[in-house]
Amino acid sequence: MEKRLLHITVNNETHELYVEPKRLLVEVLRDELGLTGTKRGCNTGACSACTVLLNGLPVKSCSVLAMQADGTEITTVEGLADGGKLSPIQRSFLDHGAYQCGFCTSGMLMSATALLKESPKPAKEQIIEAIHGNICRCTGYNSIIRAIKAVAEGKYKEEE
Predict the structure, then answer these.
(1) Which of 38, 79, 101, 130 supports an S-S bond with 75, CB 3.0-4.6 Å?
(2) What does DSSP assign to residue 14?
(3) Is CATH 3.10.20.30 correct for 4-79?
(4) Helix (H) and strand (E) counts for the chain?
């Protein structure tokens, strides 16, 4: 199969690479760009471990062909930290123990980031709705909800 030229900006870095048209975005991010924070879980779009932001919106990268992302801006979990400083949501997840095995964590962080950008002070119900597709088999979700709520309540600010 003939490869096609893909233009994407990932974590504010522009990339041009040739990919097979049937390659999934999760494959390109992990295998071609080395961004392994985006997890490959179910490969069916059911678990949301592979969630990234595509032009600011959360998408399951195992359900998006890489060529569908041509010309877009993508943020992965690696793009949340700024110069080695964790984002407020990342710090809150750590402080609240909102991870166990860590497999779902990057997808949860991306869903939470999208929610907080859209609705900086979401109600608990909005938080639950925003992460409803993210499957976590370890935490029981309470610590994750508390971590997101703490950021929404202003307990975590951007570090300067």
Answers:
(1) 79
(2) E
(3) yes
(4) 5, 5
C-alpha dihedral sign at 117, 121, 125, 128? positive
Confidence class for position 160, pLDDT limits 50, 70, 90:
low
CATH for the 88-152 domain, from 3.30.420.40, 3.90.1150.10, 1.10.150.120, 1.10.10.10? 1.10.150.120
Residues 6+ apart with CB under 8 A from 117: 56
Please name the residue that has the structure tokens 């110069």: 83
Residue with tokens 């522009």, as numbered in its chain: 14
Q: Tell me: the pLDDT tens digits for 71-84? A: 999 999 999 999 88
Residue 158 to residue 129: CA distance in whole angstroms: 25
